[in-house]
Amino acid sequence: xxxxxxxxALNSQINKExxxxxxxxxxSMYFAAEDLSGASSxxxxxxxxxxxxxxxxxxxxxxxxxxxxxxxxxxxxFSWKSPLDAFHxxxxxxxxISSSINDLVGLAREEKDFMSDNFLQWFVAEQVEEEASVxxxxxxxxxxxxxxxxLLMIDKELGSRVFTPPTVN
Length: 169
Ligand code: OFO
Prior knowledge:
single chain, mainly alpha, Ferritin, 0% strand
């Protein structure tokens, strides 16, 4: 059985994961408006990933006899200065999520809740990938600079991303 403290912290993380999907949907719409269909599609896949993260947390809370309590979702930004600025926003957000996962692991250890600690290790590894994939896109945008042709090539590359659902337990 989850402690109240752990249950509250996991519920707060569920809200953060759903906010992540909302933020990336807003970014996807921004890219669509900028005629960058590849970047828009990349972000739509990110939306699905985030929802799968939320689902993983919800399933876990249920499995441990906790109660999922969905809270309201904060309004995300809807416009960015440039494609690079949007991906910098995504990078900042992923760093924030990594630190939130680290705090959850810290709490699980403090409470000697080793089941939660073990469950959270999937997210610790996932955040390495999440941060790396956004950093890779930023690197590509920086290399392309403001050249229109380079931007189109990156957009095409981003459009080739496919969604691979993580195993949801
Ligand atoms: Fe982007 O990893 Fe979940 O929030």
